[in-house]
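Marked as duplicate of an earlier ticket. Keeping the data here for the record.
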Amino acid sequence: MKNKTRLTFLFSLFCLTFTFAQDAEKLQKEIDQEVWKPFTEAFQNMDGEAFNALHSDDVLRANPWGIQVGEEYKKKTLEGYKRNKERGDKRTIQFWFEHRKTKADISYEVGYYKITSKNKDGERNHYARFHCVIQKIDGQWKITQDWDTNNINGHKVTEDDWLKGTPLEF
């Protein structure tokens, strides 16, 4: 009887874990469509309004150049996108995820991105690692925290790091 109880417990635990994994995967696909796909499009089109709409009003943005919060970040984004558009710059961005932990209204996402920039000086690739917190606010997924760096423990993020993952496909 003791073995039967133990087996029932283990089976129930397996079912519960499987259900949570399915829920997380479903939510991550939703986030891909509501955040990462429009993020990619807005970034590549340098559409600052669409890009800013993907972030919460009090978004916390941190990178090697400092911290920006909310309106300050959104204003800098609009200025930068306008300047890049006026110069005729072109760019693409791709992501791959190393870790994604998601539940009903919050997701913590860690991964790498590659930006390919083309301007009058030629083409170059930039690689970095990012951490994002994405929360469901009024029924819509929004980026609430965004951190990235091109150095990890004193080592530059390179194409070798990028090639370890599989880029997100829409």
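See parent ticket for discussion. The CA atoms of residues 123 and 154 lie 25 Å apart.
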